[in-house]
Specification:
Strand order of the largest sheet: 3-4-5-8
Largest sheet: 4 strands, parallel
Number of strands: 8
Shape: elongated
Distance between the termini: 51 Å
Radius of gyration: 25 Å
Order of helices and strands: HHHHEEHHHHHHEHEHEHEEHHHEH
Helix content: 40-55%
Length: about 375
């Protein structure tokens, strides 16, 4: 979203992605005030960015067919007028900056707003800067480049709707309706238990990858609330569920779990696993880092930091010391103690050459766990022997 001078400023302030130089930069006297003022000046002074924002403010979002007004106030098709223009902002970014997406047929509508489009954009950009600095000061950043990206995504709501929709779907799956798949599954298990003509189920294993771990927690909660006698074996692969939701599930409903296994990456590989892929890394860390930094939101506390939410599949949080809030520390410690029990274990990729069968996991990418031969064999071993 940043062009020209603004891009140069971002590159300069993050010191070419060098963590050492970044640390040196943020320890300079008045670094925050100086960098904030320079950012504001260079954004406003960036001619290319001004044109891009101005064009975005005059047109309807990408994907609509409404007519727009030219400088001569003649209605034309959007593509006809902007064939040679700069790329417009995305629909989500447009909505975040300019609000409602009604057709704009009056070039001077923007003047009626409290802030001009460019002023609105700069205000949001400086808000991103402030959020980044708060995270850096609290040692809750994910590196300079990634943290700037995360806070831009959070501020301009790019992709958040998709994640929120996925979480809403997992919750909807256990609602008291015939169409809810989770409710149907737990109901079927309950009917099987109450059917005296059939033998009880010998075992049920839930295997959940990434956001599937959120659905699994909902299933466990519902099973306990419904009084199911069946005990479940559970496997999480690179789980995207938060520490807080998982810890609460175990505290209140952990009795429905027989045995539990966790397979996920060590933090070193988590940081190297770019999104959407290692070869084309638009975001330099894993999807779980992106979820933690952008899509999940920490409860309001004295630090006023929204990003860096503890995610169960991220080893980073178990290895942090002193920088977690009291509630976060309690949840992470609870989970670590839970994984230390003989029947509940966690394994972190890449495991060693002589790791026993059932404990092997060698995926180096978030999406690779379901296909990793070592992990698949470990899951199969768990299903057969637990």
């Amino acid at each position: 979203m940043f062009t020209g001078h603004a891009k140069a400023l971002v590159e300069r302030t993050i010191q070419a992605r060098s963590d050492g130089a970044w640390s040196a930069f943020i320890t300079q006297p008045n670094y925050q005030q100086n960098a904030r003022a320079e950012l504001e000046f260079l954004l406003i002074d960036d001619v290319g960015l001004n044109i891009q924002i101005d064009l975005a403010a005059r047109r309807v979002p990408v994907g609509t067919n409404s007519l727009i007004a030219t400088e001569e106030n003649v209605l034309v098709e959007p593509q006809e007028h902007f064939d040679t223009a700069l790329q417009p902002l995305s629909r989500e970014t447009y909505e975040a900056i300019f609000g409602a997406t009604e057709t704009r047929t009056d070039l001077f509508m923007a003047l009626l707003a409290p802030l001009s489009p460019m002023q609105n954009f700069v205000a949001r950009a400086l808000g991103v800067f402030d959020d980044v600095m708060r995270r850096v000061d609290a040692h809750r950043d994910h590196g300079a480049v990634a943290t700037i990206q995360e806070e831009c995504i959070r501020s301009f709501k790019i992709g958040n709707a998709a994640w929120d929709s996925m979480k809403a779907d997992t919750a909807a799956s256990v609602q008291p309706t015939e169409k809810a798949c989770g409710t149907a599954l737990i109901g079927a298990i309950a009917r099987r238990e109450n059917d005296k003509t059939k033998a009880p189920l010998s075992k049920v294993t839930i295997v959940a990858h990434s956001a599937g771990s959120i659905l699994a927690c909902h299933l466990l909660r519902l099973a306990d609330e419904q009084g199911i006698k069946q005990r479940f074996n559970v496997v999480f692969l690179a789980p995207a569920v938060t520490h807080s939701f998982f810890a609460e599930t175990i505290r209140l409903h952990g009795s429905v779990i027989n045995k539990f296994r966790l397979f996920t990456m060590r933090d070193h590989f988590e940081q190297l696993d770019g999104v959407p892929s290692r070869r084309l890394a638009l975001y330099e860390h894993s999807l779980l880092y992106l979820v933690s930094g952008s899509f999940e939101t920490r409860p309001v506390d004295e630090t006023n930091i929204r990003g860096d939410v503890p995610i169960l599949g991220m080893r980073r949080f178990a290895e942090m010391s002193g920088d977690l809030s009291a509630s976060e520390s309690a949840d992470v410690s609870f989970v670590e103690n839970y994984l230390a029990k003989p029947t509940q274990k966690g394994f972190w990729s890449v495991t060693g050459k002589h790791t026993p069968i059932g404990e092997v996991t060698r995926s180096k990418t978030h999406g690779g766990f379901p296909e990793d031969p070592g992990t698949k064999r470990s899951v199969l071993e768990f299903i057969c022997t637990a």
